[in-house]
Amino acid sequence: MGYGGYMTLLNGSPYDWTLSSQHAYQMDSWNWPTVAAGTAAKVYVEYGTKGHTSDDAGEAYYKISSTSNTFSIQAKKPSDYHLYIALDGMSTKTNPKGSVIDQGFRHDASVNWILSTDEAGQFWSNGGTTVDWMQQSLGSLGNRTLKQICMPGSHDAGMSSYNPGTVGANFANTQAQYLDFYQQLMMGSRYFDLRPVLSNGQWVSGHYSEIEGVWLGGNGQSIADIIKQVNQFTSQYRELIIINLSHTLDTDNDYKDLTQAQWNSLFSTLRGLNFRMENANPGNTDFSNKVLNEFIQDKASVFILAQLPGGIALGDYANQGFFNQDNLPMYDSYSETNNRGKMEDDQIKKLKDNRNLVSDAGARKDKFHIFSWTLTQQAEDVLNLDKAIMNLGVSVYDDLFSKAYNAFTPESFPNVIYVDALGIRDKPVLFPYDKPAKVASSAEIAALAMAVNNGKAGRNGYITGR
What is the pLDDT of the chain when averaged over all its residues? Predict the structure, then answer.
């Protein structure tokens, strides 16, 4: 057998990608399909075993129907087995005409070519980095409500490091993110699950679970460090950042819920975040009904949402850039399984059942939707370092760009693509398991969100007004 892997062709444009021609030399598998508008095709590629692999090569030529735009896929350097996209007859937001984009190659895994078209006809791709993707997309997204926009999100966002915690906890069963807060922002994440806890009198990120009456977990980034990193990002980019506060605990006092005074202390600390979205007397206003231009037209905006338990109130902090769960109602239901197929089918079904963005108000289902593409460790996984949270996260990475994207429709797509190990596609926890390995990062998930906004939501007349 040869050396094989996949390329996913994600067509987020309103035009079919028509295969014009293809040919190969000594490739065991090189068979490319036409890709319909708004769909993704995962294609297997295998270098040959006959003769010398230095001679292996292949080309596939595509025309974007109803336009003059063309591109090609090339396998031309078998010594590194990389696949390339050549923009023979087109340009994108980040790549001039004639660019050759190295997509790399992943043995038995996928590389992705993501190309979408916004309302102005501009092509966007993952062939470059667009850090401020929201700001640059305001022409299409500015008049859409938050309910009508898709963005990447970080589960347990503060757990990008591990500080030893309880007995039985380790980095494999506690650390959920490889990249720190600033790096997650740079990779395109805009929704952050932040779980502040008090530990040794300090506010830090925590990841704790109670199992049969015993608490298990540890700490990640400090809240002070997170504030510094968010402020660094908002000083550079005018993006919307949603920070959702939940799972708060006093780990210094038997893991009790926070008191009102402790919540006030947390709010006071978080006032260090610049560009908080302040709204006098927000009451029960649903901010998911507000359009993106109301948040970031001329500045960054940090929307701090607190999931408050009974008996706890925002008080005057409601006038200082803090909101409660009534201000951003959401559908958030994770699958609680370590089984890849069960999680994926469950999340896709929940999306289908709970999202229907149509003009008929009686049939409309548009609650802000968290698409939890996460696997949950079970009891048998907790001490299995190979099944680290981050490893489970990357095990379902490729399916986002094929299975999940194909399940999305113009009327039913998520608001948050919510993942562990955001920006990471290869296992970072490897033998000898002393610490995460060095792995490359990728902003592809931002390109995926843009493809949802362009190729799915952008084809919904109720959303676009067309």
Answer: 95
Q: Which residues contact 235 (CB under 8 A, 6 or more apart)?
A: 274
- Domain span holding position 181: 136-464
State whether 243 and 199 are in the same domain.
yes
Could you tell me if 114 and 192 lie in one domain? no
Q: What are 261-308's pLDDT values in tens digits?
A: 999 999 999 999 999 999 888 999 999 999 999 999 899 999 999 999
Whether 171 and 119 share a structural domain: no
Backbone dihedral region for residue 243 (phi beyond 0: left; psi -120 to 50: alpha; all else: beta): beta
3-state secondary structure of 387: helix
CATH number of the domain to which 182 belongs: 3.20.20.190
pLDDT at 451: 98
- All residues at 6 or more sequence positions from 306 whose CB lies less than 8 Å from its CB, including other chains: 245, 263, 267, 314, 322, 323, 324, 325
376 and 396 assigned to the same domain: yes
Shared domain check, 376 and 274: yes
**What residues form DSSP beta bridges with 331?**
369
**pLDDT on residue 78:** 61
Mean pLDDT throughout 144-156?
98
Q: Which of 128, 153, 180 is the last residue of a domain?
A: 128
Rounded to whole angstroms, the Cα distance separating 455 from 409 reads 9
Q: Do residues 252 and 165 touch, judged by C-beta distance below 8 A? A: no
Closest CA to 151 of 177, 185, 190: 190
pLDDT, average across residues 311-335 = 97
Residue-wise pLDDT tens digits, 124-143: 999 988 999 999 999 999 99
Q: Check pLDDT > 70 for residue 52.
A: no
The total domain count for the chain is 2
Q: What is the pTM of this model?
A: 0.97
Contact 448, 114 (CB under 8 A): yes
Q: 204 - beta bridge partners?
A: 197, 222
